[in-house]
Write a structure and sequence with these properties.
The chain is of the alpha/beta class. It has an 8-stranded mixed β-sheet with strand order 2-3-7-4-6-5-9-10, sandwiched between helices. The termini are far apart. It binds threonylcarbamoyladenylate and magnesium ion. The site of threonylcarbamoyladenylate has 30 residues, from strand 5, strand 6 and strand 10.
Length: 319
């Protein structure tokens, strides 16, 4: 059965089979995950990887995350270590990505990992993508399903708005619950957080029983996706704003301005996990309404607020 857009499909036995056949033929599908929607393709296939980079207009120097059903599948491609095992046991499947050394005989196509000696791997939780991963004989290279630099999609329609008919198959898995990209942790040496997410530093430290140094200087080669200008809604974003200028869209926490038409709350009761899950939804809504600028009030830099601040800071670099 189809949705209102002819390339968005509801999930059922038939569309599962269709998606698997489609991926087996080196095609790219828009797939739901609990964080954001992804553009999935066979990570072992040069043809599929090239299609992903072309669709996203992504620089070939920016590697993709490879998604597996479970650790048993990933062992073929990466060198595992004790940190990985602890984090995997406690947090997976879930919204966390691990950077690990690539095995010499790994079949991951070198273009997927931008010819690096490391690979980013993730075990997504969404039942639809897990059902697919369980049935295919390869892992899925899957970046967020947006054009390079812009905001990640959090539902099937968002993916359609990014690519329209350029993607022939998008599976509708509802709204992504987390709504913001996975935490990226480098486990190739002393654990480091390369991209903050809703799984925070404190929890990772607790599980590993060690302290993680604060990343003051991000190594851009180490994680090219951490480029400063990123996650942009395509209009100027001003952060730490105290006062609404009267014409921009104003994003804030709480319900103080709930009757004001240009004001958008990320969460009425200041829950930062909920606020993170609404961030991209609100960015897209504001863009659709035709606003020319976004102002965002100060967001507390704790818990998921750290990930929100990371993304809005990068979004604010767009001029
Ligand atoms: O939540 C997510 O992680 C989503 C869903 C679809 O799984 N995916 C996602 O992928 O956000 P992408 O490609 O938009 O972001 C991947 C990030 C980028 O910052 C990239 O530079 C980094 O992971 N990355 C990938 N491979 C890496 C590697 N070998 N070393 C360091 N960073 C890497
Ligand atoms: Mg992305």
């Amino acid at each position: 059965m189809k949705n209102s857009y002819s390339n968005i499909f509801l999930f059922n036995k038939k569309t599962l089979e269709k998606t698997i056949n489609y991926l087996n033929r080196n095609n790219i599908a828009g797939l739901p995950t609990e964080t954001v929607y992804g553009l999935g393709g066979n990570a072992y296939s040069k043809i599929a990887i090239k299609k992903i980079f072309d669709l996203k207009e992504r620089p070939s120097s920016n590697p993709l995350i490879v998604h597996y059903y479970d650790l048993n599948d990933a062992i073929k491609d990466v060198v595992i270590n004790k940190h990985l095992i602890k984090l995997y046991q406690n947090l997976c499947p879930g919204p966390i990505t691990f950077i690990l050394k690539k095995k010499i005989n790994s079949q991951i196509h070198p273009l997927a990992s931008a010819k690096l000696k490391t690979i980013a791997i993730r075990f997504p939780k969404h039942r639809i993508t897990r059902a697919i991963l369980q049935k295919i004989n390869f892992p899925l290279a899957m970046p967020s399903a947006n054009k390079s630099m812009s905001v990640s999609p959090v539902n099937a329609q968002d993916v359609f708005y990014e690519f329209e008919k350029k993607i022939k198959l998008i599976l509708n898995g509802g709204n992504s619950k987390i709504g913001i990209e996975s935490t990226v942790v480098d486990l190739t040496s002393k654990p480091k957080i390369l991209r903050p997410g809703v799984i925070g530093k404190n929890l990772i430290e607790k599980i590993l029983g060690l302290k993680i140094k604060k990343n003051t200087k991000i190594n851009f080669i180490k994680s090219p996706g951490m480029m400063k200008k990123h996650y942009s809604p395509g209009i100027p974003v001003l952060i730490n704003q105290k006062k609404h200028d009267g014409e921009s869209a104003f994003i804030y926490l709480g319900k103080k301005f709930k009757t004001k038409k240009d004001c958008f709350s990320l969460c009425k009761n200041f829950n930062l996990d909920i606020a993170a899950s609404n961030l991209y939804k609100v960015f897209r809504l504001i863009k659709r309404k035709g606003y020319k600028k976004i102002q965002i009030s100060k967001i507390p830099n704790t818990g998921s607020g750290i990930a929100i601040n990371d993304r809005i800071k990068r979004a604010s670099k767009f001029k």
